[in-house]
């Protein structure tokens, strides 16, 4: 006890001077507390209730003679008392037990009131003989059920269980000691222990400590110790432990026997328990006074100590400890607040005590962390950095890390700082900056082992205890690339893993293998990001990976070849940007793709890109320009021989070799381009599988004549086709093209020959041979009149008349024949017309003699009545029926002529058709003449200005 420090963690309340109120006149025999009241019982039978500050509330006469024991219940506002009343008969004991309901008051006189007494019970009966009561305790099992234990001086315990108010009780007796000397078996203390459904009762005598299991019937007794204790030196802790104070020590008892003991010397007058503190009133024989000590057993310190008078009772209420002296004075002691206690310890630099104190008081973590911080600051000021850091580590989660980091950065204690940052990461409270600082510490210390442990921890915590990007960035900056790769791979940060492999280490093969191991979606993302580097160093392997991604090769083929899956595959167009500086590799990739996939959704874009590559004149080939070893020696020798000298071959020959390679490759690419133009525009498709306008622009820009001619011809732009030949002055090809495209019988355009003739007429050079050939086809198809041919060719001063002499002669001869044929036709038509007019005049002026003797219809002899027609046909009237106005024989011919006339008149009103015939005809004049000849077109008369113009078609009279 003398080794324990003493502190004033408690203080005296009410100025340290309190008195029991004067209304309490008798000697205090017993006390109890609960529900905000202090209840005292006196030897005059009165019970008084005191409020906070020991102020008198009210009192009443509970028993006639004296109150021996009382207990204020907690769950219900009941007061159970044991006292002496007037003895009615010698056979009945004067000791009885009463239960008062303090919530119900009965008027008693005019000046006082008393609570309602709801039950009175005689303790001693014939079965339970009377003895001196030495201890008393009440347990509220389930109100109003009470379990009352009464300890006697003869070693017996009378137990009463039930509802006393309704007189529904059971009694039973417990035997503690059966010694002959009853003076040493008095029950000096009782205590209940409730553990779940188990109910146990501690019983203490001067010579023993016993435990009864009340859940058993009959109750089973267990002896815990052969040494007991005296009255007032027995109490119960808040953990249901029995505490016994003896002169040499204070002992704690559990259900299985004696537990820990504390060696506090001196006679223990009173033993109590308050909020985890042990209360002892010890008689000090050396000074002849009593000392009241409050022990903090967890922290091994005396929380308060003071010298007191003779104590008669000790109890706890209102958060205070109340000592009632024999002279009716009282002392109230209350605990100071935590802040005051800590300030007291801080002033004495007792930080370890402060830490133990807040932990034992179950203070919140923030308060504990504050104490630890102050302790750490104290150690830091003493330059005890290791211990200071040990304290700061315990504050993680409550103290701002920057507070600690700043201190140890200033002190340049990198080892302590590293330890703190490690703990910060273990608890998952580190930020990106903390991760950066810790990794920098490792790299500064060159502690690879700890760096491995931090990054490559096998417990899986490493996935979340630091920021991945920060760790990778710091490791890369410190050239710990393997560690950075490990973190990136473990965290699934494929882009960072590849960034290290490619940019820092240049391990391209490993990067390609890693990409191949990824899921297709992830592999596609990584290739898009790092494909430029891969194409530059490993073009073939990278193209293979792209082919697996964009087609159904490899693992992806196992998923099936459904159209849904194919549509989910990435398109080559998505990867075009990675080939920005490597067109040759792009061309190889797209060629492989188009050879494998024929129905890609992006085939138009792919074909457009391929065309641009095929037709480009300045496509670079770094793989060829960088080759120095793979030189064709025979080519160099031949080139050197041509150039003449060996010295020049060292420079110019190599340049020529490159030009030869370039020209050869350009030709090959153009052949591929022309092939692509043809196969991507099948005959069954109206539009090609590429952008026609773009293809024409590319052919124009790169002077790709073959492709341009194919596109124009495919689009039926024949004039543009011959314009290409004209621009190139390719006369032979021009004439061959017109032969192919100018044949109207095969759907060609004959007017091409006219354009060709015009071209030669404006050429300004001798092209007699070509003109003669062109005139042959113009003459064959009668494309142009001779006058137009003459006018066109007259513009070329280099052409002579001999070029067209034969052509003009043939045309004139042919025209002469046509004129002669037209004259003969005119004469014949004039003769026929004259004959018709004479016949008409004869019909109008002369009579007709009908001499037919047979009916034209039935061929029988003609008899009357008969009908004769001017066409010299005769019929029986009966054979004509109702149709007597026209000849049945001539009527069909007449009707066909009239129908033809009406058709011509209708066509004359269809102006669009008329002009279309004029336009499409080789000789429009002949069409107009034909319309005039058929009498369709006639002169129109001008009517009044306010009426519409109308044309009348004239026709000859017919039969």
UniProtKB/TrEMBL annotation:
Gene3D superfamilies: Tetratricopeptide repeat domain, YVTN repeat-like/Quinoprotein amine dehydrogenase. The keyword Membrane applies. Residues 812-846 form a coiled coil. It is found in: Endomembrane system; Vacuole membrane; Prevacuolar compartment membrane. GO terms for cellular component: CORVET complex; HOPS complex; plant-type vacuole membrane. Keywords: Coiled coil, Membrane, Metal-binding, Vacuole, Zinc, Zinc-finger. InterPro entries: CHCR_PEP5_VPS11, Clathrin_H-chain/VPS_repeat, TPR-like_helical_dom_sf, VPS11, VPS11_C, WD40/YVTN_repeat-like_dom_sf, WD40_repeat_dom_sf, Znf_RING. It is a peripheral membrane protein. It holds the Pfam family zf-C3H2C3. Residues 939-959 are annotated as: Disordered. Residues 947-959 have a biased composition (Low complexity). GO terms for biological process: endosome organization; intracellular protein transport; organelle fusion; vacuole organization; vesicle docking involved in exocytosis. Residues 855-890 form the RING-type domain. CHCR repeats lie at residues 392-543, 560-769. GO terms for molecular function: protein-macromolecule adaptor activity; zinc ion binding. Its main location: membrane. Involved in regulating membrane fusion at the tonoplast and the prevacuolar compartment. Core component of at least two putative endosomal tethering complexes, the homotypic fusion and vacuole protein sorting (HOPS) complex and the class C core vacuole/endosome tethering (CORVET) complex. Belongs to the VPS11 family. This is Vacuolar protein sorting-associated protein 11 homolog.
């Amino acid at each position: 006890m003398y080794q324990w420090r003493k502190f004033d963690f408690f203080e005296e309340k009410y100025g340290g001077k309190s008195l029991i109120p004067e209304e309490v006149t008798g000697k205090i025999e017993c006390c109890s507390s609960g529900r905000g009241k202090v209840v005292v019982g006196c030897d005059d039978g009165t019970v008084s209730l005191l409020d906070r500050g020991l102020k008198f509330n009210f009192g009443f006469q509970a028993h006639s003679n004296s109150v021996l024991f009382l207990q204020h219940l907690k769950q219900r506002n009941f007061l159970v008392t044991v006292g002496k009343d007037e003895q009615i008969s010698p056979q009945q004991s004067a000791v009885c037990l009463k239960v008062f309901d303090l919530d119900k008051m009965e008027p008693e006189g005019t000046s006082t009131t008393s609570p309602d007494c709801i039950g009175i019970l005689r303790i001693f009966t014939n079965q339970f003989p009377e003895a001196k009561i030495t201890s008393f305790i009440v347990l509220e099992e389930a109100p109003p059920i009470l379990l009352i234990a009464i300890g006697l001086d003869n070693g017996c315990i009378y137990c009463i269980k039930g509802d006393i108010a309704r007189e529904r009780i059971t009694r039973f007796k417990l035997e503690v000691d059966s010694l002959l000397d009853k003076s040493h078996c008095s029950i000096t203390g009782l205590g209940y222990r409730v553990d779940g459904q188990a109910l146990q009762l501690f019983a203490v005598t001067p010579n023993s400590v016993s435990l009864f299991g009340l859940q058993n019937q009959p109750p089973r007794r267990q002896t815990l110790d052969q040494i007991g204790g005296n009255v007032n030196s027995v109490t119960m802790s808040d953990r249901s432990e029995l505490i016994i104070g003896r002169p040499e020590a204070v002992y704690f008892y559990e259900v299985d026997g004696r537990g820990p003991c504390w060696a506090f010397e001196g006679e223990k007058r009173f033993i109590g328990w308050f909020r985890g503190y042990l209360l002892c009133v010890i008689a000090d024989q050396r000074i002849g006074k009593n000392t009241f000590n409050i022990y903090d057993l967890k922290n091994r310190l005396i929380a308060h100590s003071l010298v007191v008078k003779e104590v008669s009772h000790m109890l706890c209420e209102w958060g205070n400890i109340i000592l009632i002296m024999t002279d009716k004075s009282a002392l109230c002691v209350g605990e100071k607040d935590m802040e005051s206690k800590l300030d007291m310890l801080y002033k004495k630099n007792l930080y370890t005590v402060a830490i133990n104190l807040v932990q034992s008081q179950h203070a919140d973590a923030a308060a504990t962390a504050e104490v630890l911080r102050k302790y750490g600051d104290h150690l830091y000021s003493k330059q005890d950095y290791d211990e200071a850091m040990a304290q700061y580590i315990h504050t993680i989660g409550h103290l701002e890390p920057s507070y600690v980091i700043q201190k140890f950065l200033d002190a340049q204690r990198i080892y302590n700082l590293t330890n703190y940052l490690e703990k910060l990461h273990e608890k998952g409270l580190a930020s990106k900056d903390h991760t950066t600082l810790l990794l920098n510490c490792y790299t500064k210390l060159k502690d690879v082992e700890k760096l491995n442990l931090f990054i490559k921890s096998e417990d899986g915590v490493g996935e979340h205890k630091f920021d991945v990007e920060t760790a990778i960035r710091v490791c890369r900056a410190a050239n710990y690339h393997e560690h950075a790769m490990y973190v990136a791979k473990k965290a699934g940060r494929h882009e960072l893993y590849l960034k290290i492999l490619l940019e820092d280490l240049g391990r391209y093969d490993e990067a390609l293998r890693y990409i191949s191991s990824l899921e297709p979606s992830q592999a596609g993302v990584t290739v898009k990001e790092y494909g430029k580097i891969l194409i530059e160093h490993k073009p073939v392997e990278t193209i293979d990976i792209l082919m697996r991604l964009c087609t159904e090769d490899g693992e992806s083929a196992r998923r099936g070849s459904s159209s849904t899956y194919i549509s989910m595959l990435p398109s080559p167009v998505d990867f075009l940007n990675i080939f920005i500086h490597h067109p040759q590799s792009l061309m190889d990739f797209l060629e492989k793709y188009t050879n494998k996939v024929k129905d890609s959704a992006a085939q138009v874009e792919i074909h457009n890109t391929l065309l641009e590559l095929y037709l480009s004149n300045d496509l670079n080939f770094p793989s060829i320009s960088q080759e120095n070893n793979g030189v064709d020696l025979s080519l160099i020798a031949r080139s050197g021989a041509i150039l003449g000298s060996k010295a020049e071959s060292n420079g110019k020959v190599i340049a020529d070799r490159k030009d030869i390679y370039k020209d050869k490759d350009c030709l090959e690419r153009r052949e591929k381009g022309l092939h692509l133009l043809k196969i991507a525009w099948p005959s069954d498709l109206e539009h090609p599988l590429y952008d026609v306008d773009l293809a024409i622009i590319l052919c124009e820009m790169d002077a790709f004549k073959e492709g341009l001619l194919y596109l124009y011809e495919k689009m039926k732009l024949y004039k543009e086709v011959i314009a290409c030949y004209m621009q190139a002055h390719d006369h032979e090809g021009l004439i061959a093209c017109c032969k192919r495209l100018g044949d109207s019988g095969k759907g060609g355009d004959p007017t091409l020959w006219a354009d060709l003739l015009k071209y030669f007429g404006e050429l300004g050079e001798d092209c007699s041979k070509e003109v003669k050939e062109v005139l042959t086809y113009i003459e064959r198809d009668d494309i142009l009149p001779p006058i137009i041919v003459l006018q066109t060719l007259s513009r070329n001063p280099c052409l002579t008349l001999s070029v067209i002499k034969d052509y003009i002669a043939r045309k004139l001869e042919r025209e002469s024949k046509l004129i002669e044929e037209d004259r003969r036709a005119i004469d014949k038509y004039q003769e026929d017309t004259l004959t018709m007019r004479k016949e008409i005049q004869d019909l109008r002026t002369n009579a007709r003699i009908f001499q037919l003797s047979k009916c034209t219809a039935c061929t029988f002899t003609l008899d009357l009545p008969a009908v004769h027609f001017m066409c010299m046909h005769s019929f029986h009237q009966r054979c004509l029926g109702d149709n007597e106005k026209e000849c049945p024989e001539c009527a069909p011919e007449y009707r066909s002529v009239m129908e033809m006339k009406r058709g011509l008149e209708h066509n004359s009103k269809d102006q669009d058709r008329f002009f279309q015939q004029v336009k499409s005809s080789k000789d429009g004049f002949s069409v107009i003449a034909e319309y005039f000849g058929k009498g369709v077109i006639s002169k129109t008369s001008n009517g009044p200005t306010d009426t519409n113009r109308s044309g009348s078609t004239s026709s000859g009279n017919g039969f």
